[in-house]
Write a structure and sequence with these properties.
With 571 residues, this protein is mainly beta. Strands 11, 12, 14, 15 and 16 form a five-stranded antiparallel beta sheet that branches. The radius of gyration is 36 Å and the shape is globular.
Length: 571
């Protein structure tokens, strides 16, 4: 009996607690909270005047979550002093070590930092403006920032103003007024004091309020910004550009080689030995910052030479250096080369080949380079054909007129004759029928025999075979149009969605892109404003903006056997 009584008591309390626990749970479901926190009080109040103090506080109608305040909060004019954050359930206070400056309009833009704690809804009351004087500065400037080379809007780019008569800029000091672009590349700087400014934009990746070349892209307006009224729609373009002067970081032995390493990419360089009888082999190695020399000398003495280098901004560096090789057990780097057109490409009878070698070439065996049509039909490249080996001897270009089309036609005629013979003969014989006329399209093979190329490093090429097929124009499309422009010097580029250049044409008032594969494309034009024969990227230190780039406003879709005409360009 006692046992049953105890069991009854235990069961009673178990059911009781189970029921109680269930009763205090909130009901499931219900509408999702989409309402952001609402500002109910601020100190100072919005647009207030003659404020004195050293702190700003905001109170909202619900519990808050603060996301990355130090990166999100933008204060203008900028305050460089570190501030203290006091975050409570539904309020936030920003405390500075010093009072705000007299007679100054301040704007606190919290962007997406203040959110509700449940759903992360961002407050719409995220900008607070007030003045320590007796009026609010109310001027503004707005516009858009795009990538110079793609014309795509750039998000989270810092747009800022500096006093015009100051030596400060984005490379050495924080700005006075600043904001960030939105997902459409648009920006707005408000509550600016009447004055004359310079306008910049840069990608402040490390949040140090300085533009760090070459890691961070930048742009600027060469026009003076005179703010005595509001300014709308100031368009800016940003690009990555290394404006630093050329410097040698290292010049010395590197294993079996001698190398010069510079601090930035070079466009070109030259090597002039003081002793003009000395021949030096050298080229860019792995990138345009490293120049490698190869030991073909018969002496262990140092060689004096003049090194001259240039970059994309036409900066020139000249110095006299000394070259000396040392003994090394390190293995030499493997020899390799690339070929354009690439393996398995489609080609025409006018074959234009480009070979790029990772080491300078000292010998070419033209008898080892030939096209194979079939087991008994060959076409050899020979040194009387038009070819060019560049000064550094690491790039070979050549042209050959092939008989690939006539060869395929002869095969088709042979197939037709064979088919006719079979049809007129015994149809009951065993075996498959011959191919139909024109159905055969055997691949053309380009052979590079063993030892076809010998390098300054003493090694040679291995055997290599590439295969090509006949390019059939009916499988491609054409784009053509007229150019309406007062500029005489420009480059028209057909680019794909990855901004890769497919074809380009220079200075053509009537242009045509032939043999365009099916796909979507854009047209970009680099404008040579100063007619110096090339496009110039500008110079921020000389207040020279990049030369113009025009984009055809529509995407162009091409299909096989299509011809698009009247794709006219006006710039």
């Amino acid at each position: 009996m006692k046992y049953f009584f105890t069991l009854w008591i235990v069961s009673f309390f178990f059911i009781y607690f189970l029921t109680e626990c269930a009763s205090i749970s909130p009901p499931g479901g219900g509408p999702r909270d989409t309402i952001p926190p609402v500002l109910i009080k601020s100190i100072p109040e919005q647009k207030s005047l003659n404020f004195s103090g050293n702190s700003v506080s905001l109170v909202y109608d619900e519990y808050l979550k603060i996301e990355n305040l130090t990166k999100q909060l933008i204060i203008t004019p900028i305050i460089q002093d570190e501030y203290e954050q006091k975050i409570r359930r539904n309020s936030i206070e920003i405390i500075f070590p010093e009072p705000f400056k007299d007679s100054t309009t301040y704007t606190f833009n919290f962007q997406d930092a203040i959110q509700d704690i449940t759903e992360g809804n961002v407050t719409e009351d995220n900008v607070l403006a007030f003045s320590t004087g007796d009026y609010i500065d109310s001027l503004y400037i707005n516009g858009k920032v795009v990538d110079l080379f793609s014309n795509d809007p750039v998000e989270d780019i810092l747009v800022c103003l500096y006093p015009f008569d100051d030596t400060l800029d984005i490379f050495n000091s924080p700005p006075i007024y600043l904001t960030k672009t939105d997902e459409e590349g648009k920006y707005l700087i408000e509550n600016i004091k009447n004055g004359i400014y310079r306008l910049y934009a840069y990608d402040d990746v490390n949040s140090n309020l300085n533009c760090d070349m070459p890691r961070e892209m930048f742009g600027f307006s060469s026009d003076t910004i005179v703010l005595n009224g509001n300014i709308d729609s100031v368009f800016m373009q940003v690009l990555s550009l290394d404006m630093r002067a050329i410097e040698i970081q290292r010049a010395g032995p590197a294993g079996k080689y001698f190398e010069i390493k510079t601090n930035k990419g070079l466009v070109d360089y030259s090597i002039q030995p003081i002793d003009t009888t000395v021949i030096l082999y050298h080229n860019f190695w792995s990138d345009n910052k490293t120049i490698r020399f190869y030991n073909t000398l018969q002496t262990s003495d140092s060689i004096e030479f003049v090194f001259e280098a240039s970059d994309s901004l036409e900066n020139i560096f000249i110095d006299t250096l000394y070259l000396k090789f040392v003994e090394s057990k390190r293995e030499k780097d493997e020899f390799s080369f690339s070929v354009v057109p690439k393996d398995n490409s489609k080609i025409t009878d006018r074959f234009e080949g480009t070979l790029k070698f990772n080491k300078p070439i000292t010998l070419i065996d033209f008898d080892s380079i030939y096209f194979e049509y079939d087991s008994i039909t060959f076409q050899y490249m020979h040194d009387s054909l038009p070819y060019t080996l560049n000064e550094k001897k690491d790039k070979l270009t050549f042209q050959m007129d092939l008989f690939y089309s006539s060869y395929l036609e002869s095969l088709a005629q042979s197939d037709t004759a064979t088919r006719t013979t079979v049809e007129e003969g015994d149809r009951g014989q065993r075996g498959g029928s011959p191919a139909s006329p024109g159905s055969r399209n055997p691949k053309l093979k380009l052979h590079f025999g063993k030892y076809a190329f010998v390098t300054a490093d003493g090694d040679s090429s291995a055997q290599r075979v590439l295969e090509y097929q006949k390019l059939r124009p009916e499988n491609f499309g054409t784009i053509k149009g007229n150019v309406y422009s007062d500029y005489d010097s420009f480059i028209i580029q057909l680019i794909n969605s990855r901004n890769e250049v497919i074809q380009e044409i220079q200075n053509a008032k009537q242009y045509t892109f032939n043999l365009v594969s099916a796909g979507d494309y854009f047209i970009r034009v680099f404008i040579d404003n100063n007619n110096n024969g090339k496009w110039d990227p500008g110079n921020i230190f000389m207040n020279i903006e990049p030369e113009g780039i025009y984009f055809f406003p529509e995407e162009i879709t091409i299909r096989a056997n299509w011809e698009l005409t009247d794709i006219n360009l006006q710039f």
